[in-house]
Design goal:
about 150 residues, five-stranded mixed beta sheet, mainly beta, six-stranded antiparallel beta sheet
Amino acid sequence: MSESENAKYGHLMPVGGGDPIPLVKPHLRVGRRESCDIVLRFSNVSAHHCELTIKSGYWFIKDLGSRNGTKVNGNRVTEKCVEPGDVVSVAKHRYELKYSPHQLGAVGPPPRDDQAEDILRSSLLEKAGLERKNEQNQRYDITDGFNNRRKD
């Protein structure tokens, strides 16, 4: 396979130097196990750490319940669109993602991350498990025990 064919989907460039890792297909599993598409032989990388998948011409990363986490531009994520030039961290190992959305079939801006919308859809107390709803559309705040009508 030639270098241009190898780079069809882009590269992960190690931050600080090293050989680029070619992205050779539209769905890749990253981890320490030999069965992964991208094998990172570091003890702090989980056996099956994360997945990279192309959606609408953009790469998305999804953490697979890893012990040391997956980050995009320093922010821990469970699933996130990774734009060209973003830095992905697998445990403590950092890689710049280089690719062209146009070459991958993108026809506009990157899709919105559903995670941000989900966060805004409910209160922080509810996300933390400190607020419970009952069937009369009231809320019970277990931090101080008061009930009040919810104005949704």
